[in-house]
Amino acid sequence: MGKEEPGPQGSEFTIGKENNSPTESRFTRMKKSDNSQSQLFATRLGVIAATVGSAVGLGNIWRFPYEAGVHGGGAFMIVYLVFIFLLGIPVLTAEFVLGRSTHRSVFGAFGFLKPGTRFKGIGLIGVVASLMILSFYSVVAGWTLEYFIRSFGDLFSKNGSDDFHRMFGEFTEGWRPILWTVVFLLINMLVIVRGVQKGVERASNIITPLLFVLILIFCVNSLTLSGAREGLEFLFRPDFSEISPSVVIGAMGQAFFSLSLGLGCMLTYASYFKDDTPLIRSATVTAGLDVMAAILSGILIFPAVFTYGFSPEAGPALVFEVLPAIFAQMPGGKIFAPLFFFMLFLASLSSTISMSEIMVSWLTRERGVSRRSACWLTIGIAMFFGVLCALSFSYMSGLKIAGTIEFNIFNIFDYTSSNILLPFGGMLISIFTGWQLDRNIVKKTMNEPKSWFNRFAPFVIFILKYVAPVMIFVIFVSNV
Ligand code: TRP
Questions:
Q1: Cα distance between residue 387 and residue 185, in whole Å
Q2: Which residues is 454 bridged to in the sheet?
Q3: Which atom of ligand 1 is nearest to 418's Cα?
Q4: Exposure winner among 147, 320, 426, 477, fewest CB in 10 A?
Q5: Is the CB of 65 inside a 6 Å radius of any atom of ligand 1?
Q6: Burial bucket for residue 480 (CB in 10 Å: 0-12, 13-18, 19+)
């Protein structure tokens, strides 16, 4: 890939020359380790487009509204916001520090900063869990393609949510989801195989702004509906008596999933940052836009749900059963429906390319595999397991291990990766950054020249050291 060029950055950002700790010399040496300009994002805007594109996905538009819906709306939202700002931004900053300062993959970064460290194991968690998420996520992304196509055809011959419930059931039990999973992964392949700048960055530059424009159009439309007031009250008026352990667990999982945290996905993207890319600032902007996308998705969905007399507690079916029923009744629904599912498809794509990069960057950077082979291998594995996930709604549904335990790969992948591996990885990343690395060096890495954001560096480190590990551990244990 690309021609070899001298180091991407000037020396303005060499860290801690005055100090000679072993970690320190590695921090300095890594400046020379990355010498391929095409392995870096070209612009600051590209950095934000890529990280926000990764963060904003099905997690915001599909998962957030249904999680908020079943967990009491406003109460869930408050707890979710607390997690984003208290844990999300610091852990995101930590991933940025590890990625940008090493220009390595999730496998290489830990050992590079601290040779021989056991924390290298995070790489394994990252690669395995990202493949699991990529597999089941592609199945849902495939559904959006089916609904997009159908919204030009027979989607509107149905009426009432029962019809849509049946339609969703019939669809997921057939063979078409398998086809769509494969098609979606091939589209994903087309993007990533082009490389960091021409593939990932360029696609993100187009998709991310478009996504926000589309969400905003939908929000404006929702706000004109008669149930707008009720919908907004559901989302924004917290009933604190609704806060229960399950709300807290759900909100933390949602915060991690939505910010693509815990698996080194953002670490991988940060390894494509230039050395002067601001870290705390980028983390804050990414988290802010991610939260905005989630809230806007709530504003998009709940007014419509209340206007047409549905329950917000439909769960995962909210987007695929309730929304089509709403579009069928809504003036202009014939235009909004395809636009909505197209938006969901784009949001999924900019997220799955970031999941694929975890493994691709490991294979290309540390294993010497060509980008093309690395991409095919990643997509091939995801296809295999993605098809199994798609089948778990049809031919493999009701499969039992030893005749008793239900074995549904889709659910197992979703649960294990989101609720166990993600928080576990996030905890290890916090501990590694907070305890294993030299505090002053981490602080210097976060700092940018004359920035207002520098004042948050000690706070971020404090969270990484004490708050994040303890909080994640407690919630994690109560979850398992
Ligand atoms: N954040 C994405 C979403 O909200 C999903 C995602 C992308 C993700 N990359 C990830 C989740 C890495 C966990 C880990 O849809």
A1: 11
A2: none
A3: 13
A4: 477
A5: no
A6: exposed
Q: Is the CB of 55 under 6 A from ligand 1?
A: yes
CA of 56 to the centre of ligand 1 (A): 8
Q: What pLDDT sits at residue 16? A: 34
Which pLDDT value is given to residue 38? 73
Among 251, 285, 256, 221, CA closest to 74: 251
User: Which two tokens mark 274?
Assistant: 């230039």
- What is the pLDDT at residue 345? 97
How many whole angstroms from 183 Cα to the centroid of ligand 1? 20
Sign, CA dihedral 28-109-279-19, equals: negative
Q: Is 263 in the pocket of ligand 1 (CB under 6 A)?
A: yes
- Indicate the burial class of 257 (C-beta count within 10 angstroms; 0-12, 13-18, 19 or more): buried
pLDDT at residue 7, rounded to an integer: 39
C-alpha–C-alpha distance, residues 215 and 50, integer Å: 18
Which ranges constitute the DSSP H helices of 308-332? 323-329
The pLDDT of residue 292: 97
CB of 258 shorter than 6 A to ligand 1: yes
| Structural contact between residues 270 and 106, judged by C-beta atoms closer than 8 angstroms | no
d(CA 56, CA 344): 10
What span, in angstroms and rounded, lies between the C-alpha atoms of 122 and 364?
18
The residues of the chain scoring below 50 in pLDDT are 1-22, 24-25, 28-35
Residue 189 has phi, psi (to 5 degrees) of: -60, -45
CA-nearest residue for atom 6, ligand 1, is: 260
Q: How far is CA 84 from the centre of its chain?
A: 13
Kindly report the length of the chain.
Answer: 480
Ligand 1: nearest atom to the Cα of 62: 15
Taking the CA atoms of the chain, what radius of gyration do you get in angstroms? 22
Place of tokens 């870290």: 279
Give DSSP secondary structure letters for 81-94. HHHIIIIIHHHHHH
CA 108, 110, 111, 113 torsion-angle sign: positive
Report whether 319 contacts 297 (CB < 8 A): no
54 lines ligand 1 (CB under 6 A): yes
293 touches ligand 1 (CB under 6 Å): no
Residue with tokens 């019939």: 170
Q: 131 and 123 in contact (C-beta within 8 Å)? A: no
**For 370-387, b where at least 16 C-beta lie within 10 A, e where not — what string?**
ebeebbbebbeebbebbb
